[in-house]
Amino acid sequence: MANSWFQFKHFRVEQGACAMKVCTDACVLGASAPLATAKRILDIGTGTGLLALMAAQRAPGSYIEAVELDALAAAQAAANAAASPWAGRLRVHALSLQQYVATRPDRFDHIICNPPFFRHSLQSPDAARTTARHTTAETLPFSTLCASAAGLLTPTGQLTVLLPPPEMLHLEREAAAAGLYPQHRLTLHHRPGSKTLRHITTFSRSAGPVTTQALAIHQGNEAVYSAEFRELLQEFYLAF
Fold first, then answer.
1. pTM metric for this prediction
2. Between 50-58 and 24-32, two packed helices, what is the crossing angle to 10 degrees?
3. Distance from the Cα of residue 206 to its chain's centroid
4. Rounded Cα–Cα distance for residues 24 and 116 (Å)
5. Distance (Å, rounded) from C-alpha 121 to C-alpha 100?
6. For residue 137, what pLDDT band results from cuts at 50, 70 and 90?
7. How far apart are CA 87 and CA 98, in angstroms?
8. What is the 3-state secondary structure (H, E, C) of 165-204?
9. Do the bridges between strand 153-163 and strand 108-113 make them parallel or antiparallel, or are there none, so unpaired?
10. What CATH number is given for 5-233 in this structure?
11. What is the maximum alpha-carbon separation in the chain?
């Protein structure tokens, strides 16, 4: 059973009310998304609020909004934000993305998203976990995510998304239809040379060559974290 909280160096994530808990790949997304120059950041499907909190830590001059469909998760994310050192720069909305777009918010320099990604697999009997893990017409289809992101980004804004490789291919097609194109891709692996677990892809409005970088979580011995992983997460993980 997952812990009811996850302690980082500068903040704690309470997660007992959330279907999806803090996980390694989401932490890599939060630590690697290019946020250095972003002043307004949006986290779509915030869950526990993890990505919004990591963004607040990494981009000190930024203002972050987060959207979460599940009311219990949104309340927990809001509580996590309020308990953090950056409470004044974080706002959580208990809305679907479609409802949030209808409020006509100001545009964002960067959007981050760890979306539901099991489009055709057997769904969990736990309704909240199904919503968090599965993309359906009623929750967050990739077409809606991409079209909404395109409308919410500034002309030079970027969208960074975490997905398994097959699902990322599908999202890239939807993104292109919305006028967003891959710019950089981080491939995440258990260890050097192992199969790709996730793609973390950054999109922009400019089509061009895609730069690619690989990151292994562990060295050959899976009990030992790689130097690259430790460097990326050293400002967040207590163990580093």
1. 0.91
2. 30
3. 21
4. 16
5. 28
6. very low
7. 25
8. HHHHHHHHHHHHHCCCEEEEEEEEECCCCCCEEEEEEEEE
9. parallel
10. 3.40.50.150
11. 49
* Percentage of the chain modeled with pLDDT above 70: 90
Q: Where are the domains of the chain?
A: 5-233
Q: How far apart are CA 116 and CA 124, in angstroms?
A: 13
Please count the other Cβ atoms lying within 10 Å of the Cβ belonging to residue 88.
Answer: 11
Q: What is the pLDDT of residue 1?
A: 52
- 31, 36, 41, 35: which is closest to 153 by C-alpha? 41
Name the pairing type of β-strands 108-113 and 63-67.
Answer: unpaired
What is the distance between the terminal CA atoms of the chain, rounded to a whole angstrom? 24
Q: What is the pLDDT of residue 223?
A: 83
Query: Which residues are CB-contacts of 133 (< 8 A; sequence separation ≥ 6)?
Result: 19, 20, 116, 117, 118, 124
Region of 5 on the Ramachandran plot (φ > 0 left; ψ -120 to 50 alpha; else beta): beta
Of all residues in the chain, what percent carry a pLDDT higher than 90?
A: 86
Distance in angstroms (rounded) separating the CA atoms of residues 152 and 135: 20
If 0-12 CB within 10 Å is exposed, 13-18 middle and 19+ buried, where does residue 92 land? buried
CA distance 116 to 113: 9
Distance from C-alpha of 65 to C-alpha of 5, rounded to nearest angstrom: 22
DSSP state of 132: H
Residue 154 has pLDDT above 60, yes or no: yes
Query: Does an H or E element contain 84, and which?
Result: none
